[in-house]
Design goal:
5 helices; eight-stranded mixed sheet; 218 residues; five-stranded mixed sheet; Fumarylacetoacetate hydrolase, domain 2; alpha+beta; binds magnesium ion; 18 strands
Length: 218
């Protein structure tokens, strides 16, 4: 299983929680809105794809979308974690792509079926390296996705409907959070399809983090 290095500490990636809608403009572009509580789904931890690997598009989808997201990794787990304490449980942050087989997801939504295949296939949980959480104000981070040199998504975490602390608090009322759990905190607007030959560049200038991923067919 994939390991994460943050300073001297190593973490084994455990459960992967993802927030479906957390930026109003993205909810709107999906023809949806944000509810009173976060909407959370899970990817298997076999979906992780780390920096240095290429994104392989699954043959059974003809429309894989990028979703650029801030990702938190839990250092310390817990149940019913108060929002006021939640950020002390975070070991680090990365950028990630919640890759989504949008055609398969649309069919699942229509049929009332789960999103597991659309969201959880191999390589669908893309991750950059992590930076230590200490000193990172998760409510004021700005980051970008460029494809083939063109800006496609620009995120500012102040636009989140639910802050990282609120997400951790809510998730931990329903699921026991454990060390090594990841939380994909939702995407801003600008999602779209990627195709073989694309080069995706994720950049988080405030922490000097940059990673690029080539896209190919499986
Ligand atoms: Mg997402």
């Amino acid at each position: 299983m994939a390991m994460i290095q943050i300073g001297e500490q190593q973490y084994r990636i455990n459960n992967i929680f993802c927030v479906a809608r957390n930026y109003h403009a993205h909810a709107k572009e999906m023809g949806s809105s944000i509810a009173d509580e976060p909407m959370v789904f899970i990817k298997p931890n076999s979906a992780v794809l780390q920096a240095g690997a290429a994104i392989e598009l699954p043959s059974w989808s003809s429309e894989v979308h990028h979703e650029l997201e801030l990702v938190a990794i839990m250092g310390e787990g817990g149940k019913n974690i108060p929002a006021a304490d939640a950020l002390t449980h975070v070991a680090g942050y990365a950028l990630g792509l919640d890759l989504t087989a949008r055609d398969v997801q649309a069919a699942a939504k229509k049929a009332g079926n789960p999103w597991t295949l659309a969201k959880g296939f191999d390589g669908s949980a893309v991750l950059t390296d992590f930076v230590a959480a200490e000193g990172v104000d998760s409510t004021a981070q700005v980051f970008d996705l460029k494809i083939n040199g063109q800006l496609r998504q620009h995120a500012n975490t102040r636009d989140m409907a639910f802050s990282v602390a609120e997400l951790i608090a809510w998730i931990s009322t329903k699921f026991t959070l454990q060390s090594g759990d990841l939380i994909y905190t939702g995407t801003p607007e600008g999602v779209g399809a990627i195709v073989a030959g694309d080069l995706l560049e994720l950049e988080w200038a405030q922490v000097q983090l940059k990673a690029s991923f080539a896209v190919c067919n499986a």
